[in-house]
Known about the structure:
- The chain is α+β, with helices and mostly antiparallel strands.
- The protein has one domain (about 5-145): Beta-Lactamase.
- It is about 40% helix and about 25% strand.
- The protein contains five helices and five strands, in the order αββαααβββα.
- It has helices spanning about 5-15, 35-40, 45-50, 60-75, 125-145; strands spanning about 20-25, 30-35, 85-90, 95-105, 115-120.
- Strands 2-1-5-4-3 form a five-stranded antiparallel β-sheet.
- The mean pLDDT is about 90.
Amino acid sequence: MKDEEKDRLCRGIVDGIGDAVIFSDHEGTIRFWNGGAEKIFGYSEQEAVGKSLDLIIPEKQREAHWKGYGRAMREGTTKYGNETLAVPAVRKDGNRISIEFTIALLTGPDGKVLGPAAVVRDVTERWEREKFLRQRIAYLETRQTTP
C-alpha cells in the first residue's frame, strides 16, 4: 500500500470511528480532536483544539492528572503501558461521564516525547448499570435472613 493510500485510510478510520481520538502536546494542549471526541464531550474541533485538557478533566482530578502527565512527558514512559484506564470526565454541558481510554506516547524524529494520543470511550451507561447492580446486591444481602 502506498503511503498516500495508507494516510487516507488512517485518516478515514480516525475520522469515522465512534471513539474519541485525542492528541495533546507536551504541555497538555489539545492538538487533534476527532468527530468521536465531539460526540462524547460536546465540544467541536474548533472549540477544543488549542485548549488545555482541563476542558474535559474534572477539577478534583486535575492535580493528580497533571502530576502523572508531567512525569510521563519527562520520562518518556507511562506506568500504565497498554492498560485501559477508567476515569471520570466532564462534558461541555457540565455533566460528568465515565470514560475508559488507552494512550500511546508519540515521539518526534529526535526521540523526544511530543505528547500522548488517547483513544477514549464513553462507558457511562455501563458504569451506571453496574453501580445499580452493586447497590441491588448490597440491598439484597442486607435483607437475607439466616436460618
